[in-house]
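Protocol step 4 of 6: record predicted structures for both targets in the notebook before any analysis. Target 1:
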Amino acid sequence: MADSTYKCKTPVVMIIFNRADTANAVFEIVRKAQPPKLLLIGDGARQNKPGELEKVLKTREIAQKVDWNCEVLTCFSDENLGCKKRISSGLDWVFSLVDRAIILEDDCKPAATFFRFCDEMLERYKDDERIMMVSGDEQSGAKTPAETSYYFTKHVHIWGWATWARAWQKNDTAMKDWPEINRKKSLEQLFKHKRYNFYWCHYFGILYENRVNSWAGPWVYSVWKESGLSIAPKTNLITNIGFGEDATHTSGKSIYAEMKTQELEFPLVHPKYVLADAQRDELEMKNRCKDDGRLPYPFDMLASLLKWFIIRRILKK
């Protein structure tokens, strides 16, 4: 059951931009958890977007709404750095100040027990190099809950998560080793589904070429490059409230939009072994392959590449 009196022990990071409505909805949950430290990361307004500066400044007013005993630190950019550079550099700033943190984007609304779950996992596995992060997402869609309170997974979920400075220091935003890893086909052994592997190898390729403005993609790559595992709760603790036209990466329809949450029970029941849950990983792969527009078939990707190549040739003329 959720304990409304529980106070979060870990610093909380909120990543905000220009959506005051969703950011305030997430902040209200954070306010109830009363973390000892709140770190705010915000990008600057885009000059070609009339009225966006006002929205950005309105969203940043969250910093003035903290009404509990809490240290508030801000990392707000005057210029627009873009999703990849702003969030990755912001998290670099965070982990130069703290050794662990809970991270929430402005559209990731957590259940009440998410904070206690992260607190306990961050402390229990602080020295286990195999574990790269803790997630609040349960996206396997399994019909029966896990026998333990959480499980280990190869999948990387960043809609409400937590990690340590020791793990984040391995983040390779530039993906400098990707050409060699791709040539050796090293990542193709991670998952059974060829379509799933094809998607990620294709995606890592365009990330390496800076054709996608994403911080999360390089983080997924960095976790997998280290053969890292994530922790996922047996019940979903995060709902994404940001799907819509104003979203940066979640503007389309998805089976993952506004997933229901269910509180975890304490004390936690721990897994006996630190091994990825093969059945749940398999289920999640299948779900992601079904999700509309999420994992295109190879010929869809080839068509996309051909379109990009034609446009590039036209622009060069």
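Target 2:
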Amino acid sequence: MKIKLEEKFAEQYRKNPDAVYFTPGRVNLIGEHIDYNGGLVMPCAITLGTWVAIAPNADSKFRFKSLNFEAQTEVESNRSHEKNGSLWANYPIGVINEFIKDGKQIPGLDFLYFGNIPIGSGLSSSASIEIATAYAINDYLNLGYDNLELVKIAKRVENEFIGLNSGIMDQFAVAFGEKDKAIVLDCESLKYKMVDVNLGNYVLAIINTKKPRELADSKYNERVEECQAALRLLNEEINLNNLCELTAEKFALHSHLIEDKTILDRATHVVKENDRVHLASKALNAGELQEFGRLMYASHQSLRELYEVSGKELDAVVDFCKDYDHVIGARMTGAGFGGCAIALLEKGFEEDFAKHLTDFYVGKIGYPAEIYVSEIGNGPVKL
């Protein structure tokens, strides 16, 4: 891909790029809608991702082009900028804004992007673009940021520039990913540990429902507000910074404070999902893949029934997986409302799985899903 991107860069800018970088996407193995509630998540980097080629220009402009989108834009390099509608380049522009706010002098630069993460699929294409941009500029201009600082910059872009009240998991996962390892991340303290993911005779299947989701326009922010409402009610009796400070046992003692069933369901999911991450980490450390798969199914059921962020497309995939003998666990991944599911699929059955899932899904939904098999990969790198 590097050579192709260099060739396309030369075609579009009539010069060669100085450097090319790659940043992965991510899946969250378990621990959904926990990051903004201060709990534990278990993401990993995947081998799908974003490439960016970069070179300086003498025009004091930032130029953004992509092989995935026709829309291209350029902005002045010596000032900050406002979000421009739903333009894809808002993500790199937001990153550069943060550097400028931090007092960095960024000269004119030309960018060309390519990504093979399905857009709107829940595999963190936006976080991949943000970290790709931040990592490339930081490395190319030797700005001196470490990866955690880049993660925090990218999170501010999502929250303040894009306007999505998301947590830090996506950016952290793509920046700190390691091959064949998952990250158990405490989203409150940002302490983390790496857990070996020995899938043995299984592979990670990623199923894109082909139902895109625009998180900023969805009920994502509504779920954040519902969790904050639960926290306020619980704090009438106990002192909490976030919902994930509660164990399931302690939550049961105080859940009477939440009389609204919807708010109670949301909080119940959060507390029990946080517990599932603890159990999943123990299962992986012990090599108990069957138990890990059971926890995946339990996570999806909770997201479907209590948190209500699934949908008929994601449910169709997981329902099929439950009845398919060579899958031991499946769940939606990402924020939901469409996007992707993941499954632990026995090796050697990839083609059979794809064929039968496609037939089932078309019968239920009316169009085919996209099915990928991915490895667990590394974080950003200069190629």
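Step 5 preliminary note on target 2. Residues 196-374 form a domain with the Alpha-Beta Plaits fold (CATH 3.30.70.890). The chain has a mean pLDDT of 93.
Proceed to step 6 after PI sign-off.
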